[in-house]
Design brief:
The complex is a heterotrimer of chains A (287), B (321) and C (400). Chain A has 287 residues and is an all-alpha fold. Chain A has twelve helices and two strands, in the order αααααββααααααα. A two-stranded antiparallel ribbon of chain A has the order 1-2. In chain A, strand 1 and strand 2 form a beta hairpin. Chain A is globular, with a radius of gyration of 18 Å. Chain B has one domain. Chain B is globular. The longest helix of chain B has 27 residues. Chain B starts with a helix and ends in a 9-residue tail after the last helix. Chain B is mainly α. In chain C, strand 14 and strand 15 form a beta hairpin. In chain C, strands 8-7-9-10-11-14-15 form a seven-stranded mixed beta sheet, with helices on both faces. A six-stranded mixed beta sheet of chain C has the order 2-3-1-4-5-6, with helices on both faces. Chain C has a two-stranded antiparallel sheet with strand order 12-13. By secondary structure, chain C is α/β, with parallel strands linked by helices. Chain C starts with a helix and ends in a 13-residue tail after the last strand. In chain C, helix 11 crosses helix 12. Classes of the chains: A mainly alpha (287), B mainly alpha (321), C alpha/beta (400). The interface between A and B is large, with 42 and 42 residues.
Chain lengths: 287, 321, 400
């Protein structure tokens, strides 16, 4: 029984991280209808910035949560204006290929500047034990922060004008335009928010995982699965999807061995794509 | 008809040139020519699904890998090489038919993601089913006997023939009811249905066509290298590069993918040796350039058309491009 | 009708242009050694290690005038090409080096899978290829005659560890094995299982994790619940760093924790800090060895000193093996007295020499015969060899 609680706890902690990885990606996909292949690389970019700030300037990584996200927000806004805006209405293949190309550029640049060696911030926080269940300190911290960030984003989306505009565009683009919402502006802000969340996620990842460009593809893959599980364009959806994936991987890894943990998630995704592509929460889930 | 003739005008000399490489150049060039044929085949295959039908398919590597493993397991079981290739092709086709039935009901982004996750899933299965596939350690294949020049020639011609078959299939489909139906689906699936196109059958047919030659290519490639392993057989990089090649030349045209593959190989070669550290970034830039300035591919670009027009003003009977 | 002809012409032109695109390696009194290396991509770090060692060797050899080939001294030239950790490229590059750049000999890149691909090409052309970083028997099991590897087979390591650990700590009864589903780490996991069973241990956990996993918590939690005395994990540096860290976080420990090949690399210790202490591992070489040899370095110490001047920290077995591979090639060329590929190949097969890296003698499958491979442990942030006795600097410390 204890192991099960540990397994579930592991799953939830991992899941919170997955949710954070996916939330920005989900927004862009749901609102702009674009699959942003750069998402994984943006996360790692955030991770590298955090790592090097820690290494050379001795800045506490948590402090970087105030610096990296705004930086990436700007980067996202810029990217959107210069590149993405022009292809928003084009078919899937075009947008996907474009972001794939941009990703290759970003990935290559990061490799050249930062090098692919796995880097780890050695900030050992220790762990917390609670009735035979061990919660690693940094994971716990990351989970709390991930949930907090996601919560803040959700709050902002619901209350601020821009947030509500984004939701409106996601619901019905043309109606929103008729209501006077500047679609291009909304797109740009959404993309920027996505980049910002990716950056924040990167900071959290730097605290928990070794940072390396080798895993950008992996992160992107997780984002896909979370989006399908939880539904597109909604913050609660990404959260549910992330937690669900974390639990699924943890449980299936426990039952069928770690080699099948990832496989289970992917197969589940395919099954859902075939049967219920809008995700576990369905259309009602967004917002 | 016209595009067929004009396409053949340069395709035939190219094929002849490729076929002659063992006699006019060294083995490295022969190998490059073989790669051109292989990539052209893959791009042509993708074209059925992504070009004609308009479904963004990223499952190319799933079929390549499946063909490779099928071919390898058969050959290791004593089946002669060419027969193994044929059977592997059949296996891949069957798989595509079943898979198509399941995922072709998805559209747009969902289809794209579904198709790319098939690659991942197959890779994971190949990696964990060690007793059958050798798992992470990969599979050996019997080495093709008979000196490098001979082997080089054999595989060149094998891939050349495969490419020709793929071109033939493309031409036949393009001019048939199936091709017409696929183009209707690409424009508007529901309207196509109403007009009387058997949408489901057509899509599955296109999907199977997009799979079989990839399967053969995979099996041939496995025999060529004599060793396969999951990450190389089910390569995500390849499955993303193939659509780019087709789009570069012109998706939905008959010969566009071939031209795209050729240009791609030439670029890769000239870039490879000169900008070692920035290979991927340059490829990325090419893609960005492609999307913004050549959305229909090289064979459809306005620059190209103007070029064609100027050449053709001397020949007034020539109809519009 | 003109345009398609024009395109036909363009295709022809482009082909001919790039058929003539060759670097001009015209010099004929130079020994050309082709080196496909992963300088970018997933294995870039390892590729660069080989690059550094090759350069060190070449510099020394050329400083001494070159290699003596049948009475004449010829300089060496290493032709490096980046194959970007991509299998298809590895094949292309190998082919290019042989047919375009006309190399006399080849080296193999890091890692079993791509070594195999390069070896396949080399075998076709009859070009001797020396692999410095391939230790899995499955790489050498295709009957290639032209492939030789300086790393000894994996099996020897696990046998030695099982024997030694059970002797020092007889209370060890249960072992948990977690391997990465990839050529080399999987082979190491399989070997450990076999050796453990032969030593009378009970294998309480034996699973693999897929390439591309972000989290080991599941596997580790299960391992914890089976309460093993010895935890053995194989993988590449980033997997092992993550696993060790998660073990510490989840409060999982055992008297003996072994990771292959983590601690053999400095990056492992740097990334983990104090958490790396106590982890045992094995390697193919340690810089504290005291071999004396008749090669361009002369002794392990000499190589070590030279390496330190490169400013890349301590050398690990990859660095040493890469240099040793070229030394072996050099000796074979000198013995054969010619650059004829078949004769050099035969000389390689008959190799039986001592180098700064240790003895090199190839078995019938081309692998360096197993011998006493170092077992090490991280103690207070430093890698301390425990075995064999000739290089022993410390004793096994049980993790509390």
């Amino acid at each position: 029984m204890d192991t099960y609680i540990q397994v579930l706890t592991n799953g939830l902690m991992l899941g919170a991280l997955y949710a954070c990885i996916a939330v920005g990606f989900s927004l862009v996909w749901g609102v702009l209808n674009i699959i942003n292949m750069m998402h994984g690389s943006l996360i790692i970019l955030g991770g590298y910035l955090t790592y090097f700030a820690w290494l050379h300037l001795k800045i506490n990584p948590l402090f970087m949560l105030l610096i990296v996200p705004p930086l990436l927000f700007l980067l996202g806004y810029l990217l959107q204006f210069v590149m993405i805006n022009r292809v928003v209405a084009r078919p899937v293949l075009t947008t996907l290929t474009l972001t794939f190309g941009l990703d290759m550029i970003l990935y290559n640049l990061m490799n050249v500047v930062f090098e692919a060696t796995p880097r780890r911030i050695t900030m050992d926080i220790g762990s917390v034990s609670f009735m035979d269940v061990v919660l690693p300190g940094d994971r716990l911290l990351a989970m709390v922060l991930a949930l907090a960030l996601t919560g803040i984003l959700y709050g902002v989306m619901r209350t601020s004008r821009t947030g509500r505009a984004i939701v409106a565009v996601r619901m019905d683009r043309d109606a929103a335009a008729l209501m006077g919402i500047r679609i291009n502006r909304v797109y740009a802000v959404t993309f920027a928010i996505s980049a910002m969340m990716a950056g924040a996620c990167g900071v959290l990842m730097a605290v928990t995982f070794p940072v390396t460009t080798n895993i950008t593809g992996l992160l992107l893959g997780k984002a896909f699965v979370v989006c399908v599980l939880g539904g597109l364009g909604s913050v609660p959806g990404a959260l549910i999807g992330g937690l669900a994936l974390g639990l699924i991987e943890s449980l299936s890894g426990n039952w069928w061995g770690p080699q099948n943990a990832v496989l289970t998630g992917s197969v589940l995704m395919i099954v859902l794509l075939m049967t219920r592509p809008t995700g576990l929460l369905g259309k009602a889930g967004y917002e | 008809m016209n595009s067929l003739r004009s396409g053949l005008m340069w395709f035939v000399p190219l094929t002849v040139l490729l076929a002659l490489t063992p006699f006019i150049s060294n083995n490295y060039i022969v190998q490059q020519a073989t790669f051109v044929c292989m990539y052209a085949t893959l791009a042509l295959s993708w074209n059925f699904m992504g070009g004609y039908t308009g479904y963004p398919s990223f499952s190319t590597s799933a079929f390549i890998g499946l063909g490779a493993y099928a071919g390898a397991i058969l050959q290791n079981g004593g089946v002669p090489m060419v027969l193994a290739w044929v059977i592997a092709t059949g296996v891949t086709g069957l798989f595509a038919a079943c898979l198509g039935y399941a995922i072709l009901r998805m559209k747009g982004h969902y289809f794209a993601i579904g198709s790319i996750s098939i690659v991942e899933i197959l890779r994971l299965i190949a990696a964990s089913w060690s007793s059958f596939t050798g798992g992470g350690e990969g599979l050996n294949l019997p080495i093709f006997r008979g000196g490098p020049e001979y082997a080089g020639m054999v595989f060149l011609y094998a891939f050349l023939v495969l490419m020709l078959v793929a071109v033939l299939a493309t031409v036949l489909v393009d001019r048939s009811r199936l091709g017409f139906g696929l183009r209707c689906i690409e424009q508007n699936e529901d309207a196509a249905d109403m007009v009387g196109v058997n949408v489901n059958a057509s899509k599955i047919a296109a999907f199977v066509l997009s799979a079989i030659f990839c399967g053969t290519a995979g099996a041939m490639s496995a025999s060529w290298v004599s060793y396969i392993s999951p990450p190389d057989a089910f390569s995500i990089v390849m499955t993303l590069k193939v659509p780019v090649m087709a789009m570069l030349g012109g998706a939905g045209t008959m010969f566009g993918p071939v031209f795209g593959a050729l240009v791609f190989v030439v670029i890769e070669q000239s870039v490879l040796s000169r900008f070692l550290d920035y290979n991927q970034a340059i490829l990325g830039l090419i893609i960005v350039f492609l999307i913004f300035f050549l959305p229909g591919g090289l064979l459809r670009s306005t620059l190209f058309k103007q070029f064609k027009q100027r050449i053709l003003t001397k020949d007034p009977q020539e109809s519009k491009p | 009708m003109r345009l398609p002809k024009l395109m036909g012409f363009l295709s022809l032109a482009s082909f001919l242009t790039f058929a003539s695109l060759k670097p001009a390696f015209a010099a004929d009194d130079v020994i050309r050694i082709g080196a496909p290396l992963a300088l970018t991509g997933g294995l870039a770090d390892e590729g660069k290690k080989q690059q550094v060692s090759y350069a060190m060797w070449a510099k020394r050899v050329n400083a001494a005038g070159g290699i003596t080939v049948g009475g004449k001294k010829m300089k060496v030239q290493i032709i490096e090409v980046d194959y970007q950790t991509d299998e298809k490229r590895a094949q292309q590059i190998a082919e290019k080096l042989i047919t375009q750049d006309k190399v006399n000999f080849l080296t193999a890149p890091f890692g079993s899978g791509h070594t195999k691909v390069v070896a396949g090409v080399a075998e076709r052309y009859g070009v001797p290829v020396i692999a410095s970083v391939a230790s899995s028997e499955s790489v050498f099991n295709q009957g290639y005659k032209y492939l030789f590897g300086t790393l000894s087979p994996n099996g020897g390591i696990t046998e030695n560890m099982a024997k030694m650990f059970t002797k020092v700590q007889p209370s060890i009864k249960k072992i948990a094995i977690l391997g990465r589903e990839d050529v080399f780490p999987k082979s190491m996991a399989n070997e450990m299982k076999a050796s453990a069973e032969r030593a009378g241990l009970q294998v309480v956990y034996n699973e693999t994790y897929p390439v591309g996993i972000l989290d080991h918590a599941t596997a580790l939690s299960k391992i914890k619940s089976s309460a093993p005395d010895w935890i053995y994990i194989s993988g590449y540096t980033q997997d092992l760093v993550l696993a060790r860290k998660q073990m510490a976080d989840l409060k999982i420990t055992a008297p003996i924790i072994t990771m292959i090949t983590g601690p053999a690399y400095q990056e492992f210790i740097t990334a983990l800090g104090p958490v790396a202490d106590g982890v045992t591992s094995a390697s193919w070489w340690h810089h504290s060895a005291m071999y004396k040899s008749d090669d361009v370095f002369g002794s392990t110490q000499e190589f070590y000193k030279d390496f330190l001047t490169q400013g890349k920290g301590d050398p690990d077995y990859v660095n040493a093996s890469a240099a040793a591979a070229l030394i072996t090639l050099q000796k074979a060329i000198e013995k054969a007295g010619t650059l004829d590929k078949v004769k050099v190949r035969d000389a390689l097969a008959a190799t039986n020499i001592m180098t700064f890296y240790g003895p090199i003698k190839f078995g019938p499958n081309g692998m360096n015969q197993g011998r006493e491979l170092p077992i090490v442990q991280v103690q207070k942030g430093k890698v301390v060899p425990l075995f064999p006795d000739v290089i022993k600097q410390g004793t096994l410390q049980i993790i509390k």
